[in-house]
Amino acid sequence: MNRLLTRLAQANKDDGMSTIEYAMGSLAAAGLAAVLYKVVQSPIVQTELNDVIARAFG
User: Fold this and answer.
1) What is the CA angle 52-32-35, rounded to 5?
2) pLDDT tens-digit series, residues 5-40
3) Distance between CA atoms of residues 38 and 31, nearest Å
4) Residues 30, 33, 38: CA angle, nearest 5 degrees
5) In this structure, are residues 31 and 38 in contact, taking their beta carbons and an 8 Å threshold?
6) pTM (two decimals)
């Protein structure tokens, strides 16, 4: 059991993201958020969302 834990600890020395990986992940998340924002703000989606909300409360 001790040897297994030692091997696992040595295998995971590079945990987490490096700076460039963190930056790329943040950039990708921001890009996805921008696309989703544009989609939700489109008139077609706005109309559909309003209809869904009206049906839910009406």
Assistant:
1) 60
2) 777 666 666 666 688 888 999 999 999 999 999 999
3) 11
4) 130
5) no
6) 0.55
Sign of the four-CA dihedral 41, 46, 50, 53: negative
Q: Are 23 and 32 in contact (CB under 8 A)?
A: no
Contact call for residues 56 and 50 (beta carbons, < 8 A): no
Q: Kindly tell me the burial class for residue 11, based on how many C-beta atoms sit within 10 Å of its own C-beta (0-12, 13-18, 19 or more).
A: exposed
17: tokens are 């993201």
